[in-house]
Design brief:
12 strands, 6-stranded mixed β-sheet, 44% helix, 434 Repressor (Amino-terminal Domain), 18% strand, repressor, DNA binding, Rossmann fold, Lambda_DNA-bd_dom_sf, alpha/beta
Length: 325
């Protein structure tokens, strides 16, 4: 069985150079990289991942815990995190918590056993101390946990302002906001704060309805939106806290004979790819998902290298107007 020394000798480079190629560390010319990989293939050399991780005291694996992998926002986030992680020499261990504390705890224990280098959290259901006591870097997405853990979020308050202001400027006089359960301590709740503040200041009749604690359970959306339109048939504007909820509002509004956007205007949040595919296409607040993903990987790397980093990372949002307004 070939060893790293065999690869180095045949490629005419040092063992250190082969190690750098394997770990994607340090500067290596493309020619040298191709030569080393060519020799590895010729000799059928496969590095021992466990031995390498023990030697380096790192695994080059980042854990990613998200609440619902089928939700378009988190699906796109996972895709982009994997892209930037791989570009930085990491692999991603993806975990789907479904907002279940027991499941999340099991995944964290599994990550300890697999010696991950850090965790990107898109879900948190445990106590703050459970996260702060973990022996590796953590980054959270759209949630603030403790005083020492860095987090990334879009500018939720500004997004709520942009969405509400658009509906008011378009002439809406009774607007509804559909959001997740406000009992959950999420930075996304700032969207609701902005909606209620701006509608109140503008003297616009408004109301807020919430999902249950399982905010990603799509089965509840249709019932709550039908009830909203039944109890408030004069609603002419809706700001939904996600594009998925907004899509349900479009579907049900049209089923009830409401002309969009003439009689009912709808704004979503996220700007997932499907928002532009819908008919009518969805006006929404764009979260910079790709930039958030890249920054999450960068913050893990900076913590590993004990480099300076910002704890609070609020990224700008953008109003994308399409056919629903």
């Amino acid at each position: 069985m070939a060893t790293i020394h065999d690869v180095a000798e045949k490629a005419g480079v040092s063992v250190t150079t082969v190690s750098r190629v394997l770990n994607n560390r340090g500067y290596i010319s493309d020619a040298t990289r191709r030569k080393v990989f060519g020799v590895m293939e010729e000799l059928n050399y496969h590095p021992n991942e466990i031995a390498r991780s023990l030697l380096r005291k790192q695994s080059n694996i980042i854990g990613l815990i998200i609440p619902n992998v089928s939700h378009p926002f988190f699906g796109e986030l996972a895709n982009d995190v994997e892209f930037f992680a791989h570009r930085n020499g990491f692999k991603v261990l993806l975990c789907n918590s479904r907002l279940e504390p027991a499941k999340e705890r099991e995944y964290i224990e599994m990550m300890k056993r697999n010696r991950v280098d850090g965790i990107i959290m898109g879900s948190h259901t445990l106590e703050v101390g459970d996260y702060e006591s973990l022996p590796y870097p953590i980054v959270t997405i759209d949630r603030r946990i403790g005083e020492s853990i860095p987090y990334i979020s879009s500018d939720n308050y500004r997004g709520g302002e942009l969405a509400t202001r658009l509906l008011i400027d378009k002439g809406c006089r009774k607007i509804a906001h559909i959001c997740g359960s406000l009992e959950l301590d999420l930075l996304a709740n700032l969207r609701t704060d902005a909606f209620e503040s701006m509608a109140t200041r503008s003297g616009i009749h408004h109301l807020t309805i919430q999902t249950d604690m399982d905010v990603f359970n799509q089965e509840q959306y249709e019932d709550m939106i039908r009830r909203l339109f039944r109890e408030h048939p004069d609603i002419d504007g809706v700001f939904a806290t996600s594009d998925i909820i907004a899509a349900f509002a479009v579907k049900i509004g049209r089923t009830l004979g409401k002309r969009i956007p003439e009689e009912l205007r709808i704004v979503g949040y996220d700007d997932v790819k499907a928002a532009s595919w819908l008919q009518p296409s969805l006006t929404t607040i764009r979260q910079p998902i790709r930039e958030m993903s890249e920054l999450a990987v960068e913050l893990i790397r900076k913590q590993m290298e004990e480099a300076p980093y910002e704890r609070e990372n609020i990224l700008p949002v953008e109003l994308i107007e399409r056919d629903t307004t």
